[in-house]
Amino acid sequence: MSAPTLDVDPWHVREPHVDTGTLDVAESLFSLSNGYLGIRGTLDEVEPFGMRGTYLSGVYETHPLSYPEGGYGQPGEGQALLTVTDGTPLRLLVDGIPLDVREVRPEVHERTLDLRAGTLDRRVRWTTPRGTTVEVSSRRLVSLAERSICAVRYEVRALDGPAHVVVRSEVASGAVTPTGVDNDDPRVKDVLDNAFEPMVHACAPTGGTLASRTRRSGITVAAAVDHVVDGGRVSSDADEHRVVTVVAADLAAGGALGITKVVAHTWSLDAWAGSLVGQASAAVASALDLGWEGLLAAQRDVLDEFWATADVEVDGDPELQQALRYSVFQLFCSAACISGAPVGAKGLTGMGYSGHTFWDVEGFVLPALTLLRPDTAARLLRWRAETIGSARERARTLGRAGAAFAWRTISGPEVSAYWPASTAAMHVNADIARAFWLYQNATGEDLDDVGGLPVLVETARLWMSLGHEDAAGAWHLFGMTGPDEYTGVVDDNVFTNLMARANLRRAADACRRHEARAADLGVDHTETAAWRSAAAAVHVPWDEGLRVHPMNANFTAYEEWPFEEQRDAYPVQEHQHYATFYRRQVLKQADLVQALWWCRDEFTDEEVARDLEYYEARTVRDSSLSAAVQAVVCAQAQHPDLALRYLRECALVDLRDVQEGTAQGLHMASVAGAWLALAAGLGGLREDHEDLEIAPCSRRRSPAPPTTSPGAVRCCASRRPRRAPRSRWCAARGR
């Protein structure tokens, strides 16, 4: 693991000594986002860096997908999030020597993310060859009140001697900013490295504007910048790729130069470049009208309101306290101002997974936001509902009825080139339907207000076209891949079957409540009766000898995995071919155990206990998604100590870089999963019945915990609230 060393503090994430060897992970950890705009936590002077990145949700480029062997129905185009115009650079020269922390060897170099203020602070102090001690301080924010705005207050102070200071402030278009693309296909790299075509640029005395358009997806982006300078001389210049503002000052001992830099970003699929430039310029004007202190105050007001309803208090475990607040902060920021776009698996914190959204957003992020920020959840659900046209088209390509939603996408169409872990993972459709249903159940809002009824109807139709009724009347799903990616393309995956059952029943219930609207969708009583009949006949495998549920047909007959021999060979997929482990009893992540949580009414307490024990011994958690699920079910089975261990693992996935993937961006499902592991796990919160349930897990009556796989551990209300109450957990007392 290559995580930076951080202080433990309840409201701050502080790196007291910035380590250039862990910059790539730190840039993700110190990312700032509002769901519309996201910026990685790079240094102000840019170099050195691991991955630069400024992102706008919904801004992507398409690229060709190649296949060694062709096949019907394979997606022909991929999509990738793009690095757009970067407004963070503030390059400093003191007496003609650039600030480069690899060379100046600072006496002080620290960064702090303030979870209440929503700002990233930096302080660096060094002595120049001339003998003057210079200190730079910066404070950066991505506004939660003015969605287009990133702003920074940058100050240079000569503490004990004179200094000639020059600051080169840049706004660099995506065409000249490193993309962060990691793809071996040269065609993809060429497309993404040359994604932007310059459109217009303009210069003003203290700033300027840029606009460009993606060559294939046709998205236009624009940025505007302006500066307020205290104590310096200012000049600006611009070309089609950059706006550069230079500020120079001669500082006496004790003198200071102050710069407030405001950058606005905007984008559109159909607006004219000049119009977008006007929007960005107006956003800058709005921010300047508020002023730096006004921007800080507005940021604090948004977060004060948020923390008043969403704070998590933990006694007895300061590290967990910090990690949970950090997770809740990043969860909120991932979608606070989002509109017409999804949350990606890495949010707007990095290029991991090419910026795609997956099933885990509906599975983890949306349920958490439904309880914490239902208005935000509604916007995400409306985006998903708007992609139903692409889902219907995909279903037709597959020869199925209804709608087959994409496994991975940015704008709606399927872009995964590996069908065994995408197209075969049809559970994504039930996961999406569940997110809509949970929103309606938890908030009491009308399902159709977020476009939910067509989603439930079309996914139910998909399941009917996928299912098969055998001669004995049992209903099966063949050739499916469940959540576990180490067991693919199987028959009767229990999680998938039970989620399909729930989808069918919920769709039928929704159509009963909205008969007129359902009729508009062509639904009649005969169709809903067929859904209920299929749901009742769903086959759920059972091993009578072991008294457990096989994860899928014949799973318990597979050869056991040699865990003791493979103790140091993790992740499994990086040490063994898929042909070796696809039919072995080893799980990348919770699968059947996830059904114990999401489909809890299908299992008795005894079945939960036995199933959990069986699969704990076979789950290696090579996926960051697993720990949250295992935390919840361990608490459900009254194993609070093990639940707490999994909760800590989930909450620290990024702060400790547990999966060694944080450099590519935060794991948003784990970010949300940490809150769910606490609330639904140790807190016993359930929102899937008529009434909200809260049944905290206690250590006082815990049976012996199940055995985990070797080497796998690496590190009450009766009515529905509009938002979940503040959570409190005592780690020392277990209650």
Automatic annotation (TrEMBL):
Active site: E485 (proton donor)
Domain Glycoside hydrolase family 65 central catalytic positions: 325-675
SUPFAM superfamilies linked to this entry: Galactose mutarotase-like (SSF74650), Six-hairpin glycosidases (SSF48208)
Compositional bias ranges of the Basic residues kind: 717-726
The protein's name in its UniProt record: Trehalose/maltose hydrolase-like predicted phosphorylase
Start and end residues of each stretch annotated as Disordered: 697-735
Keywords of the record: Hydrolase
Binding-site list for substrate: W359, D360, K588, Q589
Family the UniProt entry places it in: Belongs to the glycosyl hydrolase 65 family.
Domain of life: Bacteria
Species: Geodermatophilus normandii
GO MF, one annotated term: carbohydrate binding
Any one GO biological process: carbohydrate metabolic process
Domain Glycoside hydrolase family 65 N-terminal: 15-268
